[in-house]
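Here is a typical sample entry:
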Amino acid sequence: MRTNRTNGSLYTHIDRNIAVIEFGHTASNSFPSELLERLANEFETLSRNDQVAIIVLKSEGDRAFCAGASFDELVAIDSLEQGKIFFSGFANVINAMRKCSKLIIGRVQGKTVGGGVGLAAACDYVLATEHAAIKLSEFTIGIGPFVIAPVVKRKVGVSGLADLTLDATTWKNAYWAKEKGLYARVFENIADMDKELAIFTEKLASYNPDALQEMKKALWLGTEDWDALLMERAETSGKLVLSDFTKKALAKFKK
C-alpha cells in the first residue's frame, strides 16, 4: 500500500514468509504523523499474519535511512494536546514493534536522526552500511529524545544514550553504533548488506515459528510498562516544544 508523496509512502511485500516493509518520504525519509500511524498499524497487522515469520524494515533510496519526525508538523504545534499527539507517533510505532509477535530485522543504509534512531533501536537485529551514522540532535532545538530514550538505552546503555543526547551536534559512525550494540553487523556497501540480509532472513524464516515468537517475547521482557511510559514521555516533549526557547530555536532553524 502507498500513501501520496506529501505524506510519504509505505509498501509491504511478503514472499516466502518474509514481510518487507518499505517506507519513504521526499524529505530524507522523514515521518509525518499519518505515515507513523500507518507503520504502527502495519506492524500490528503483520503480527497477526500466520504467513509471516520474519519482518524486515527498510526505507527507500540509497541515502538517508530516516530523518525522524516531520519538521513541518513540529513547527506547527501550538497546543499541549497537539504536542502530545505529535510525539506519540513514534511512541505508538515503538510499542507496536515491541509487541509485534514477529522478529523485526532492520536494514539501515544511511544516516539516521532522532526518531529514526529509535526505529533502528526497536528492531530486534540490525544490518547497516558504514554510511549509517546516527545523531540525536533534539537538544539543539530545546527538546530531548525522551520518547525514544527507553528503546535507545535498551540497546546502547545509559552511557551511550548520554553520549548521543548530550553531544547533540556530532554524528556517531556506524562502527560506534555496532560497538554499542545498536547494529549487529556493518557492511561496506548496500549490495553486500542486501546479499547478507537475504541469506540471514531466509535462514530465520526456516526456523520453528513458535521458537521465534518465544524468543521475541524473551528479548522484550521487562518493557511491559512502556505503553504508559512512552505516552508520559510524549507529554513531556509536548510541553517542551511550546517553550519560548524551543519556539525561537525552531524559527531560527526554519530560516
